[in-house]
Design a protein that fits this description.
The chain is about 5% helix and about 55% strand. It is mainly beta. The strands form seven sheets. The chain has a four-stranded antiparallel sheet, with no helix packed on it. Strand 26 and strand 27 (about 315-320) form a beta hairpin. It is globular and about 45 Å long.
């Protein structure tokens, strides 16, 4: 009987791991509940970033390895449109004011502007290559795109014309706008740095060296407490940085291959989607005190995500794998 029971547990674990979904061995957290799964038919390869249209409840998915953007309906739990013939789409941005969808392509460096209702292309701007993360300043009506060997392009969100170009020391990964300080914090992992852009000067005015960990890809910002949350891969850590001094406040061990991090100011929790197969959750007690608060199972390779605070929802992109089709994993964060 004991041998049979051991064999059954081993077989279940084997099937879970070979299906790409990981059975957690660490402390499971109950604050995130998987409430739905949206299949992404015919999507293969790596999935990058996501965007959201709250009025129509649409999720835009940059299916980089598929050279498409998938438009998924949260209500019907189906993909109802696919934008094809892209070139490694990495970043997506929805602008509600003019119903525009911005798609930035890593392959050819193009920034494509689509009408988010008809999905007809409106305009294309050519950057030098490897266009990646994209952010929007709704007050200044400006779009910011990280690209190439070291640049942040600033684009007018009404005319879609390039209005400024800020040079960096290396390729930018995630970056965050600090509206109160009029700054942008930019991860430059090849240089093991965070570079600080002064938005009044449109130039880099400071650099902070990463000392506790490197491969600093994702970033989130707690603007009120002046804290940056940096997801690092080598070693796998969350590093908390004081934006006034640039000095680390603390660091916490996380799962491997993190690619997105979000701060929920209501629950005071930080969510990190990790390709190792989990969503790690860090609890903020105050600006200087943080603790690991368990994790939630996802799937191996599911490292990009989108947190929608207004709906208490975290959406994790799960790529296709052995005996597993690509999908969006929808979690409720109440």
């Amino acid at each position: 009987m004991m041998i049979r029971k051991y064999f059954s547990v081993t077989l279940i674990t084997f099937c879970l791991c070979h299906n790409g979904c990981i059975a957690q061995t660490r402390n499971e957290n109950n604050s995130l509940k998987l409430i739905a799964t949206i299949p992404l038919p015919n999507v293969n390869g790596r999935i990058d970033h996501l965007a959201f249209d709250p009025e129509h409840q649409l999720v835009f998915v940059a299916a980089l390895g598929n050279n498409t953007v998938e438009v998924a309906d949260l209500m019907s739990k189906k993909v109802f449109h696919t934008i094809k013939n892209l070139d490694e789409p990495q970043g997506v941005l929805f602008i509600a004011e003019n119903n525009s969808l911005i798609v930035v392509n890593g392959g050819n460096g193009e920034c494509d502007v689509f009408n988010a209702v008809s999905f007809q292309k409106i305009k294309t701007l050519k950057l030098s290559g490897d266009a990646d993360n994209v952010r929007y300043d709704s007050t200044g009506k400006r779009i910011y795109i990280g690209y190439g060997n070291g640049g942040i392009a600033i684009i007018d969100a009404t005319s879609f014309k390039l209005i400024a170009d800020i040079r960096l020391s290396g390729h930018p990964e995630s970056f965050q706008l600090d509206n109160s300080a009029k700054k942008i914090y930019v991860n430059v992992p090849d240089e093991k740095k965070i570079e600080i852009i002064d938005l009044e000067k449109n130039s880099v005015t400071d650099q902070w060296q990463m000392t506790e960990a490197s491969s600093n890809f994702p970033m989130s910002l707690d603007e009120a407490n002046r804290r940056l949350f940096i997801g690092c891969r080598h070693p796998a850590k969350l590093v908390v940085i004081d934006t006034r001094s640039g000095k680390p406040v603390t660091s916490i061990v996380i799962d491997s291959d993190v690619d997105d991090v979000f701060y929920d100011k209501t629950s005071k929790q930080i969510y990190l989607s990790c390709g190792g197969g989990s969503i790690d959750i860090i609890k903020q007690t105050d600006a200087n005190t943080y603790s690991a608060n368990g994790n939630v199972s996802s799937c191996s390779g599911a490292r990009t995500s989108l947190f929608i605070a207004e709906q208490n929802m975290l959406i994790v992109a799960s790529p296709s794998g052995l005996k597993r089709n690509a999908s969006l994993l929808i979690y409720n964060s109440k």
